[in-house]
């Protein structure tokens, strides 16, 4: 029993440590030297992440119907978290436009993708990409609509990530093959995205203060708890296979996405409050993620 526990703890450490290490490198590098990640982030969103998505979805092994219920579960967690925590906004005396998006839209890219691969191997990448796509699609439609009701949801069709998704699904659906040299080229581009996301997360953390630490602490607790509660409640309804249920639980435990802070800045929706929620939420994941891994592994 003791050896099993030690083996589990070692696996959790080997999963979490590389993530924390890369984020830390980004944080300390940016602390020592001014680092503007705006261009790198734009390239990542426009080039590297779409390459990763297309590489995964266009692979012969990708079977879309296999992930249908997992995608539905992810959508329910995202939307359900907003509905579940809406009454809390009144208790915390904070605007729903400020508090709910970070509770709904989690760090499924920067943290979710590498976490799934490190915890379950490369075989988990297609499922992690599906979860990431669901979260991002809802973020750029429902999330932006929450902040501005005049937002046109069709604008999402112009995003490189969505175009890569459509192209990848067409390739997979029609069983088209990508020439090996081209496939390797696209795969190598995609491999840049995950470590760059983690490094950028560390850099972003240097620009956030703790002035709104109380609301940030509430967010750090409620974000994963709401996601986990919904994921556990969904299993009797969705009847996911064990491995997919594990992915969904881990998705529910993820902290708020850094993108919430960038969007709040763009729409001037109390960015300092959102920044504290995002920062403390990601710091809190150092507790919630290992605890969740201990539960699911």
Automatic annotation (TrEMBL):
For this chain, the family text in UniProt reads: Belongs to the auxin efflux carrier (TC 2.A.69) family.
* Signal peptide (residue range): none
Q: How does it sit in the membrane?
A: Multi-pass membrane protein
The transmembrane residues are 12-30, 42-59, 71-92, 159-176, 182-203, 215-238, 244-263, 275-296
Q: Does the keyword Transmembrane helix apply?
A: yes
Localization, per the record, is: Cell membrane
Q: Which GO terms describe its biological process?
A: transmembrane transport
Which GO cellular component does the record give, naming just one? plasma membrane
Pfam families assigned to the protein according to its UniProt record, in alphabetical order: Mem_trans
Keyword Membrane listed: yes
Extract the InterPro entries matched here. Mem_transp_PIN-like, Na+/solute_symporter_sf
| Keywords linked to the UniProt accession | Cell membrane, Membrane, Transmembrane, Transmembrane helix, Transport
Annotated protein name in UniProt: AEC family transporter
- Main localization is membrane
């Amino acid at each position: 029993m003791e050896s099993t526990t030690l083996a589990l703890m070692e696996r959790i450490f080997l999963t979490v440590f590389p993530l924390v290490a890369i984020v830390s490198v980004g944080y300390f590098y940016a602390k020592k030297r001014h680092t503007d990640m705006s261009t790198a982030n734009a390239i990542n969103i426009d080039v590297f992440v779409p390459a990763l998505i297309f590489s995964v979805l266009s692979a012969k092994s990708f079977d879309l119907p296999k992930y249908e219920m997992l995608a539905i579960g992810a959508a329910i967690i995202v939307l359900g978290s907003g509905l579940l925590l809406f009454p809390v906004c009144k208790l915390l005396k904070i605007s729903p436009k400020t508090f709910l998006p970070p509770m709904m839209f989690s760090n499924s890219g920067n943290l979710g993708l590498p976490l799934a691969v490190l915890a379950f191997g490369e075989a988990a990448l297609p499922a992690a990409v599906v979860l990431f796509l669901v979260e991002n699609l809802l973020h750029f439609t429902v999330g932006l609509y929450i902040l501005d009701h005049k937002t046109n949801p069709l604008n999402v069709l112009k995003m490189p990530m969505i175009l890569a998704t459509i192209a990848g699904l067409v390739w997979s659906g029609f069983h088209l093959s990508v020439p090996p040299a081209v496939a390797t080229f696209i795969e190598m581009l995609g491999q840049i995205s995950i470590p760059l996301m983690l490094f950028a997360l560390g850099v972003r953390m240097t620009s956030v203060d703790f002035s709104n630490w109380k609301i940030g602490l509430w967010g750090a607790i409620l974000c994963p708890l709401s996601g986990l509660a919904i994921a556990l409640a969904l299993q009797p309804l969705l009847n996911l296979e064990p491995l997919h249920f594990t992915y969904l639980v881990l998705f529910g435990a993820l902290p708020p996405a850094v993108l919430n802070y960038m969007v709040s800045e763009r729409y001037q929706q109390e960015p300092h409050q959102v920044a504290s929620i995002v920062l403390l939420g990601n710091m809190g994941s150092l507790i919630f993620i290992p605890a969740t891994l201990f539960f699911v592994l």
